[in-house]
């Protein structure tokens, strides 16, 4: 055991001395691995950060929440020309579903695509995403109220001119002033601020922090949700013990009957579960990871070839020294380990520099990105270290084998 430890120590010492004596060559060799590791880990960190942001933004919503829409959130077999003829979801559709579908814990009607300037006295912010939605969204979305309250079902049904502001929007409009009871102008109309949503932070797209919530019935008094108007959607949160397969089937059958569709006609609506949307996002994230690996893999390949090339040059330059070492009794494995260590140290150093650069990038990105958080996980860092070590071993094994198999007499003669 002590013999092998001594062999390991001496081989490592020879490798470090060789690297120290050729500083420029060492730097150029590890540069390729640095770029490769930086590319891979930077891509993985960026994709992981995006994935975490999306999952966090959806964390408050029950994964069984169902969206009933006339448009599809993901790929569909229904041709585009057919989808464009589907009747948008109206408030009457929502009332039918609310009255006739069982096992619903909460429901809401939402209108999409409404961006407006929000004004308070001389202050204005915008364009801001306005979310015209019925009161049930409070029990579906999972956000909390920091100040005041959310509008009631009565205010929602009557279309009361009230508004609940996101935390960031309230700060921008009112600074340190208490927004409750104040009057803001949206759509050119006056609305009373009755609540402020608790700050949530970064999310997928804009977050409740940057939005304003108003009763959908209020917006319906002056906005159209037909084919040429703003798209609407019905949101349903099933009860926890509901059979989701049966729930979706009953929803489809009753809504088909309500729409008067014949048995041979396709659904002119889409039923989408949040869980399915999350799976779609996971597929996109996985594809981004694969593309990142492919692109970054070329950088690593170039780095590995660079190390292998330098190791062959190193073997050529030190042929005479190898012959002397072997003539003095150095075993083949001593020569093998010497060059393997040299290649591995080169790759590991390049990998560590690459990881350090990724860390600097994440720190800088977090400083300038505001609420979006870039994450460099320990798993990704460990993966970068393992990959760089593996690249060193693979790149150095052939030059090391060729060095260890040199005949001592021929090596000394060649070196002379």
Automatic annotation (TrEMBL):
Ranges for domain MacB-like periplasmic core:
26-253
Keywords (alphabetical) are: Cell membrane, Membrane, Transmembrane, Transmembrane helix
The transmembrane segments are: 27-47, 291-313, 334-361, 381-403
Membrane topology term reads: Multi-pass membrane protein
Pfam families assigned to the protein according to its UniProt record, in alphabetical order: FtsX, MacB_PCD
Residue stretches making up the ABC3 transporter permease C-terminal domain:
293-408
Return the PANTHER family for the record: ABC TRANSPORTER PERMEASE YTRF, MEMBRANE COMPONENT OF TRANSPORTER-RELATED
Q: What is this protein called?
A: ABC transporter permease
């Amino acid at each position: 055991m002590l013999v092998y430890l001594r062999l390991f120590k001496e081989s490592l010492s020879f490798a470090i001395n060789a690297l120290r004596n050729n500083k420029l060559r060492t730097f150029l060799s590890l540069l390729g691995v640095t770029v490769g590791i930086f590319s891979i880990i930077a891509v993985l960190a960026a994709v992981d950060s995006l994935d975490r942001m999306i999952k966090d933004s959806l964390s408050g919503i029950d994964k069984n929440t169902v969206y009933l829409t006339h448009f599809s959130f993901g790929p569909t077999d229904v041709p585009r020309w057919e989808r464009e003829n589907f009747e948008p979801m109206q408030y009457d559709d929502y009332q039918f579903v609310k009255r006739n579908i069982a096992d619903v814990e909460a429901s809401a009607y939402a209108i999409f695509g409404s961006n407006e300037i929000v004004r308070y006295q001389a202050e204005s912010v915008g364009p801001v995403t306005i979310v015209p939605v019925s009161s049930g969204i409070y029990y579906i979305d999972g956000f909390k109220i920091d100040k005041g309250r959310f509008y009631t079902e009565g205010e929602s049904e009557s279309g009361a001119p009230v508004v609940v502001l996101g935390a960031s929007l309230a700060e921008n409009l009112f600074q340190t002033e208490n927004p409750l009871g104040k009057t803001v102008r949206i759509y050119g109309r006056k609305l009373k601020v009755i609540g402020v949503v608790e700050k949530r932070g970064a999310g997928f797209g804009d977050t409740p922090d940057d939005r304003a919530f108003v009763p959908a019935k209020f917006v319906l008094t002056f906005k159209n949700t037909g084919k040429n108007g703003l798209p609407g959607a019905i949101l349903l949160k099933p009860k926890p013990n509901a059979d989701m397969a049966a729930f979706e089937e009953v929803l489809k059958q009753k809504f088909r009957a309500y729409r008067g569709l014949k048995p041979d006609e396709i659904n002119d609506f889409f039923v989408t579960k949040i869980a399915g949307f999350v799976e779609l996002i996971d597929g996109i994230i996985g594809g981004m990871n694969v593309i990142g690996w492919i692109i970054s893999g070329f950088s690593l390949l170039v780095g590995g070839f660079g190390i292998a090339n330098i190791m062959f040059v190193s073997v050529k330059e030190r042929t005479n020294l190898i012959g002397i070492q072997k003539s003095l009794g150095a075993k083949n494995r001593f020569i093998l380990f010497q060059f393997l260590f040299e290649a591995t140290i080169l790759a590991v150093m390049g990998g560590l520099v690459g990881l350090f650069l990724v860390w600097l990038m994440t720190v800088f990105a977090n400083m300038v990105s505001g609420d979006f958080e870039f994450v460099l996980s320990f798993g990704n860092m460990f993966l970068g270290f393992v990959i760089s070590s593996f690249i060193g071993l693979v790149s150095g094994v052939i030059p090391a084998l060729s060095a260890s198999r040199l005949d001592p007499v021929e090596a000394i003669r060649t070196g002379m």
